[in-house]
Amino acid sequence: MANPQDQDEVPEGAAVVPLIPENAGINPLFLAVFHALVFLEGSSEEILDSAAAEEASQFLATYLQRLKFDDLRRLKEDLNRMADHARKQKWSAEQQELIRDFFKHYGIKES
What we know:
Shape: globular
Number of strands: 0
Helix content: 55-70%
Strand content: under 5%
Order of helices and strands: HHHHH
């Protein structure tokens, strides 16, 4: 597997966000899902089949919608930490908007 920090090897059209350090305090499982969603939804058709990517994204969203109680609270906390990290690292406005609107975008109910 390629080194995730070697951005020179990422093909044009592949949607990626920077590697988030362990000391950011964000659940690694959430980071894995977040990175997958960014890749699936943001990559061009030259990189991914759009129908397959959309179906995979919808399945991931469905699983996220099943979160309840403590898991939902932890996800909110992770999103807050990620928003702080993204702001400090000067991520693009589009990337920060995805974090801010994550619950709405993926149909996750907050209660």
